[in-house]
Amino acid sequence: MSVALAMVAAVWLDAWLGEARRYHPLVGFGRLASWMERRLNPAASYGGATYAGMAAWGMLVLIPSAATFGVRQSVPLAWAWGLDVVVLYVALGRRSLADHARPIATALDAGDLSAAREAVGRMVSRDTDALDATQVAGAATESVLENGHDAVFGALFWFALFGAPGAMLFRLANTLDAMWGYRTPRYLRFGWAAARADDVLGFLPARLTALSYAFAGRFAGAMRCWRTQARRWKSPNAGPVMAAGAGALGVALGGPAPYHGRWEARPALGDGPPADAGSVRGALRLVDRGVAFWLGVMLLWGVATHA
Question: Does the pLDDT value for residue 187 go beyond 90?
Fold first, then answer.
């Protein structure tokens, strides 16, 4: 029951406080990771860059997670519970996801494409200057669906298994994948460990996220799109999440998108009309309903095991 209550408390703190405006731990972690990459990556040989990336990943992810485990084991239970709540709160980004996505939907409703492009640029890595309204809505919807896993459900899953160390392990690993997991000359070797670790850690929670989206939306459409479209996506975890999310919403996502000055072909997802402002809000509702479902299951499990 204590695990379920800690999850509820952390989700409530995230909804109430949102992300820290200043001195967010993950921002500091990102700066440290950038500093370490600049010093280790250019100095490594082409073959040695892989091992340098593995060492950097271990120092940045395994050491803090192990330290958190050690602290949690050495303090009184009440303090350990408090540590769990704080770490999970920091790892969650559900409120931040809504804070970034809602202004996009508002700008699209108002017909302010310039403001919508600027707002979506804060969520996605693709070029946004040339996107039309449908493409902006699609980019925002995709980002909400994918980050529902990365910033919410993945952390909840690993927290449910291992408490604060599990949530920290997943969130730090996911952050490094977002920073280093690119197939570019700079990161292809150095970021290999970060990308593979994120694939492994995200495998089960990604599929539970996809299932949550299915239950929270159009179940048949979500399962059909997951079954027929997910394998076409280049990411083994984003594929099920985004395909099921598109099917649950009943919208069309995917398709070509501009990255670093050129358009990249991407598979189509979903089987409905093009995305719009309603799709962005609908994706947020899928995340919220999924969180409510997960918390409900955990509370019921806690009651059943302590009855």
Answer: no
Buried b or exposed e, range 40-76, using 16+ CB within 10 angstroms: bbeebeeeebbbbbbebbeebbeebbeebbeebeeee
Residue 269: per-residue pLDDT: 94
Going by the DSSP 8-state scheme, the letter that residue 169 receives in this structure is: H
pLDDT (average), residues 214-237:
94
* Residues 137, 111: Cα–Cα separation, whole Å: 12
What is the identity of the amino acid at 28? G
Following CA atoms 204, 206, 209, 215 in sequence, which dihedral angle do they give, to the nearest 10 degrees? Answer: -80
Of 297, 142, 273, 132, residue with least CA distance to 212: 297
C-alpha distance from residue 60 to each of 29, 37, 83, 115, 140 (Å): 8, 11, 20, 36, 30
Per-residue pLDDT of 120-178, as tens digits, reads: 988 887 777 888 899 999 999 999 999 999 999 999 999 999 999 999 999 999 999 99
More confident residue, 256 or 278: 278
Structure tokens at 31: 């700066």
Contacts of 87 (CB under 8 A, 6+ apart): 68, 164, 167, 168
pLDDT at 274 over 60: yes
Interhelix angle for 133-148 vs 94-109, to 10°? 170
